[in-house]
Specification:
The protein is of the alpha+beta class. It has helices spanning 18-27, 74-94, 154-158, 164-184, 186-196, and strands at 8-15, 34-41, 59-66, 98-101, 105-108, 111-123, 126-137, 201-209, 212-221, 227-230, 236-239, 243-248. The chain is built from 5 helices and 12 strands. The longest helix is centred in the first third of the chain and has 21 residues, at 74-94.
């Protein structure tokens, strides 16, 4: 890594998406570690093209420019590292019982508090750059009707009014070692991610993907960060992308 994450922070009042701004900067040659933070996103987005509710001043909307010298497969580990760093920050700095659902949904009491979106520019099977986007619900008291039952915020969980910038100040130093290990020791990232996730192992899940739907029991992550699911007949599948629904946690046997 050439630069400390967040060594340069660019703040905006309102943007379409912090990832969009960071990608433009990265394409123009901005160095690794540049961080984009906005008070509001008018077109925030998450995985699989979903929108991300981004009301003014109520969340942390942050994107980092990364320039890892790795193959494109490593982008999955970088995504896991981002979720792990957020969960660790919530647990250690804000005493909130964070959990992770594969690959990068950070939950509290089963409700989503953070999403991660890593977007990469690829050239000759190498990452030219990656943009790590992180959205954390900080001060929301209410959510849009379509997501209300499945979302929560730091305010709702702790009763504390915490400025989004304060969360960023705690998060960025925790992201640093997670990202470094994603590049140099991805197996450590996977092991730590599994420790932070209640559903990584021995959990009955249903996974919907472009290939269809499978049900089975989770058996941890592969070396590349795929979710390993054991089907009823004993066959094991490596899930590279898809939507996981947890049916039951900690199945014995």
């Amino acid at each position: 890594m050439s630069s400390k994450l967040g060594s340069t922070v660019l703040r905006f009042d309102s943007v379409s998406s912090t990832n969009d701004v960071a990608k433009e900067l990265a394409a123009s040659g901005a160095i690794e570690g540049v961080c984009v933070i906005a008070r509001e996103q008018t077109a925030g987005r998450g995985r699989q093209g979903r929108s991300w509710s981004s009301p003014p001043g109520e969340g942390l909307y942050l994107s980092l420019i990364l320039r890892p010298n790795v193959a494109i497969a490593a982008s999955a580990i970088i995504t896991l590292a981002a979720a792990g760093a957020v969960a660790e920050t919530l647990r250690l700095d804000f005493q909130t019982a964070a959990d992770i659902k594969w690959p990068n949904d950070v939950l509290v009491r089963g409700r989503k508090i953070c999403g991660v979106l890593v977007e990469a520019a690829i050239e000759s099977d190498r990452l030219q750059y990656a943009v790590m986007g992180i959205g954390v619900n900080i001060a929301q008291r209410y959510f849009p009707e379509q997501i209300g039952a499945g979302a929560t915020s730091l305010l709702l969980e702790t009763g504390r009014e915490i400025p989004p910038e304060d969360f960023a100040e705690s998060l960025l130093p925790r992201l640093e070692p997670w990202y470094a290990e994603a590049i140099s020791r991805p197996d450590h990232v996977i092991a730590k991610w599994e420790e932070l996730s209640s559903s990584a192992r021995d959990c009955r899940v249903c996974v919907k993907s472009s290939d269809g739907e499978v049900e089975g029991v989770t058996r941890g992550l592969s070396a590349s960060g795929a979710l390993i699911v054991e089907l009823a007949a004993g066959e094991r599948r490596e899930i590279v992308s898809g939507e996981v629904k947890v049916r039951a946690v900690r199945i014995e046997g």
